[in-house]
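Memo to structure team: turn this sequence into structure tokens by end of day. - J.P.
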Amino acid sequence: MQAALQFADLGFFNASLRSDLSAVDRTTLRKAGVSIAWITCVSGMLAATVASITVSGVALLAVLAFVCALLVVGDKARGSAAVHLGDEVRATRNNTSWQNSPKLGSIIGSFGHSALLTMAGAAVSAALFSRPAFPNAIDLRWVRKTARFWGPGLAVAATAFIATWAETYVLSISAPIASVGQYQAVVRPLTGVTYLYLPVVSLIQAASNSGRWSRARKLTAAGISIGFTGSTLVGLAMFFFGRQIWPDFDFRTDVIVFAAVASFGMCISALLGTHLLLLGKHVAAATNSAIGAIALLVAAIVLVPSGGEVGAAVSSSLAWTIVVACHCFTLWRNQRKMKSEN
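Reply from structure team:
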């Protein structure tokens, strides 16, 4: 589901956030993103439906994932438009809606102890809390000509997704299923920290687009503080109370520490990466995320077979630290370039 939410528009919405493009180009990219998402999701639903009939009923989960992505694409487009106008309230409301409305239903559906009910709950909540958007005619030749804009945006989403999930996939392949459960018991609560700082990302985007750079810097500092505080508090809660609340899981101290570092690194990466996207540095942002994703895969392949969930947590923390360092270097170099030009 997360992949469908992130990739359905093929990077067009990421491209529409670029402040270095004209208002006309950004609006056109945004409208094209809606149409592309419809093409992607409908094609995905048809393919998954055929697969569920001929191959496996599990493919029905993919159908519901594409349904969720299609239902929230309207709010995703409206969030981009609000960012463009510098409207912090609308940007936060719409971005919070498309990012979280499917998750709310999936949490409720999970109490049915069925993957199908979990995904059905996600689709229902997405339908209840999102306003749909319908496609416009799109010129495929224009899509090819503008690949230099949306291509890097797609790469940013893809590499960030890999950097978030790769170590879990490696762990599921090379370790017992119990290790995957132990790892996810720690990682999932820490992932909840994203709900605290992602609204700040919308505020930064809107403030930057309206030229309020001082506010954008203060919001960035606030987002980093929120990420640090959230990761620390969730980590401490699992350390002191995890075994009492969920006695089936170990909540090893070393896994908690490294996973909390990874959570904080993901926060800083999201905030700094937002500034790179707003500056039109999509290629640099994608390159930095790709470096982190490659580092994660290599570290996970080396560490997970022998270290299990500890190796996965170390791999994740290392990868996000590398991404943060790359983002910092890119922003510093861009700042030096701007000063020298002035």
